[in-house]
Amino acid sequence: MKPYPSLPQALRSVPLRTIAPVTTLALLCFALWLWFDGERLAAAISGVLAVLALLASVWIHQRQPRLELGGVLLCVATVSGCLLSAWQLGSDALPWTYLVLMSNFFIVRNQIATPLNLMLVAGLLLMPGLLLGQPAQLQSLIVMVLVFGFGYHFSHRLQGDRTRLEMLASLDALTGVPNRRALEKSLQAHIDGMRAERFRQGLVVIDIDNFKEVNDRYGHGAGDIALSDLAAILRFELRENDQVFRFGGEEFVILVDTGSREALARFSERLRKMVYQSLRGPGGRITISAGAAMYAGEQRWQDWFARADAALYAAKAQGRNNVVVAE
């Protein structure tokens, strides 16, 4: 199972994948033009910036889950390229500046784009006679400030929308608990953290026993109520550092902050008993089976999950309403 990229990253990758190669080509062409025009130093600088943009493009295409660095490299290349072109071409290069001021806000977060854009404007202001002096130059400065402001405003709104979309995309609509997308992201984060800090974590996979019979006999509405009630019970029973997710269908997954296999077994058994005592459907008592596994140094979260899932199948094979903890 391949982990999903987060939604903001997925949305940001669309303009990045287009802008990065275009920027590389533009800087390379500018370097060639400067070279044949006799501006060898400026041509060399533009060539270096083209390489930087190329590295950003490669990073963006190969490091989908980590777009931030590629975006920063690209913004540095575009800002530096604008300053170089303004130094060489004067006011004729200003239209490119407007484009860069706007696009930077959509390539990286506002917290990064804002100082980079301020550096660009400050650099242009320091160039003699470029933005200060004549009325036409002052108009260019006013347009630049307006583009900066509108870019910041719309990017801020877009980031808010991205955050809300990420939240909606990470929640199960029926039960209100995080869904499989959020689970995969959280599992990978836990794997990375445990390898670095040697935390002890447990994974519990829970499945409602005979859930298909509930749906077939009493309808999907009854099944939905059972799922929602189970999610509520699990959330109520979890401790502060534990997390519950709906994996899909009638399966739930819990990340448990625990110190030993024995503690994980006690935790899982307590959940089973609580569900046995509390969860009811139209046909009476509803039970669960659970498989659990302590983190054992797996490099991939899928391997850790597979151990807990195998324990769940063992619990089912032992007659359901049971808990099995992997060795």
Automatic annotation (TrEMBL):
PANTHER family the record matches: DIGUANYLATE CYCLASE DGCM-RELATED (PTHR45138:SF9), REGULATORY COMPONENTS OF SENSORY TRANSDUCTION SYSTEM (PTHR45138)
Q: MF terms per GO, please? A: diguanylate cyclase activity
PROSITE patterns from the UniProt entry: GGDEF (PS50887)
Pfam family of the protein (one)? GGDEF
Q: Which GO terms describe its cellular component?
A: plasma membrane
Q: Which residues form the GGDEF domain?
A: 199-327
Q: What is this protein called?
A: diguanylate cyclase
Q: Which residues cross the membrane?
A: 14-35, 41-60, 67-87, 116-132, 138-155
Cofactor(s) needed, names only, are: Mg(2+)
Annotated signal peptide: none
Q: SUPFAM superfamilies attached here? A: Nucleotide cyclase
* Species: Stenotrophomonas terrae
One GO term of the biological process aspect: cell adhesion involved in single-species biofilm formation
Q: What EC designation does it have?
A: 2.7.7.65
UniProtKB keywords = Membrane, Transmembrane, Transmembrane helix
Q: So what does this thing catalyse?
A: 2 GTP = 3',3'-c-di-GMP + 2 diphosphate
